[in-house]
Amino acid sequence: MLLLFLLPLVFSYKVTFKSFIQKKKYENPFNEDILQVLDAMHRSGLHIHKLLSYSNVENLQGFYSENSLNIHQEKQKKLDLLSDKIIRSNVCGIESLGSIFSEEDDNIVKMKKDHKLIFCYDPLDGSSNIDTHMPTGTIFSCYNDGHYFQENKQVINSQGSLVLSGYLLYSSSLHFVFYYEKSVYHFMYDDLYKDFILIHDNIKIPKKGNQYSINEGKINSFHKNHKLYLEKCKKENYSSRYYGCLVADFHNVIMNGGIFMYPKDIVKNKSKIRLLYEAKPLAKIIEEMGGICVDEEIHIHKKKIKDIHETTPIYFGSNENMVDFIEFCRKN
Asked: How many whole angstroms separate alpha carbon 160 and alpha carbon 75?
């Protein structure tokens, strides 16, 4: 009986996403448009997570069609397209948005020229994991055109223009992690509350971890430096973790520390990670948490966008792991 009496008291101290948004609107009403984007992603995440949960039952798995390709000439799955439509429909109603960029589409959605926010998103990262119910995710970012430039890339490349970035991780739990106002927030969905619950309001990455994450199946396509560094990690008894979903690998690294590597394929002479839709949003989060994110030569946040669908190598992780990796590559 005593436990039943105390339960409401325990639950009352939890911060829901709804109360978080209300509090932030009160603290800074000038950022209400950015909070509307955040709320749209909260609703989109819940919808996409529900679709993923019954994708088998409703025949939502598999490719949309044999001829359906995205801008990167990759076959689109049914849930790629559904996720894209869900997010687009949720954000299109936001009055302050000027442009919307999707990784799945080469057509930029133009809203109004005099509106200041630019929204970019990867609707379903790791979609190759769908059919086996492995982790997938959504990545998003928002740029503020404080000077009302006419050129979207000029805004994106302006220092300090990234005002919101985050991801949703669809796994055994539903996670919502985002950068906003110089802090990184971590929410998890709670069925009891039917809402996300705040887990941490200023999350930091461990200074060092003993894990590395890389697709070792492509080892023969990497530069020799990376092969040598993997040998070094193994000699130092590092564990290997690789989920085949950038969001899942990223989440693992920021929670446990360590290093993630996705080098350029030197055989095909190309990279896979999208600079605008994947690398830049995640770089902002991990660097705000005290980690490092580079393309080996330059910090990702300093890279200038030349094409909205360009790709980049990416390496990120704990500060000590990344310093060790960068120094090792310079010496070798």
From this structure: 35
Tens digit of each residue's pLDDT (9 = 90 or more) over 127-181: 888 888 899 999 999 999 876 665 788 889 988 899 999 999 999 999 999 999 9
Q: Which residues pair with 137 in a beta bridge?
A: 125, 169
pTM of the prediction? 0.92
As a whole number of angstroms, the distance between CA 296 and CA 291 comes to 14
Q: Are 45 and 121 in contact (CB under 8 A)?
A: no
* Phi and psi, residue 200, nearest 5°: -150, 135
- Distance, in Å, from the CA atom of 182 to the CA atom of 288, rounded to the nearest integer, reads 7
Residue 108 phi, psi dihedral angles, 5° rounding: -80, 130
Select from 254, 205, 213 the least CA-distant residue to 233. Answer: 213
Domains recognised in the chain with CATH numbers: 15-200 (3.30.540.10), 211-331 (3.40.190.80)
**Residues 200 and 186 sit within 8 Å (Cβ to Cβ):** yes
Are residues 108 and 100 in contact, defined by beta-carbon separation less than 8 angstroms?
A: yes
CB count in 10 Å sphere of residue 32: 12
136-144 and 117-125 as β-strands: parallel, antiparallel, unpaired?
A: antiparallel
Question: What gap in Å lies between CA 328 and CA 133, rounded to an integer?
Answer: 37
| pLDDT per residue as tens digits for the range 97-109 | 888 999 988 777 7
Instruction: Say what the alpha-carbon torsion angle 113, 118, 119, 120 is, to the nearest 10 degrees.
Output: 110
| Strand 314-317 versus strand 292-294 pairing type | antiparallel
- Measured over the CA atoms of residue 156, residue 158, residue 164 and residue 165, the dihedral's sign is positive
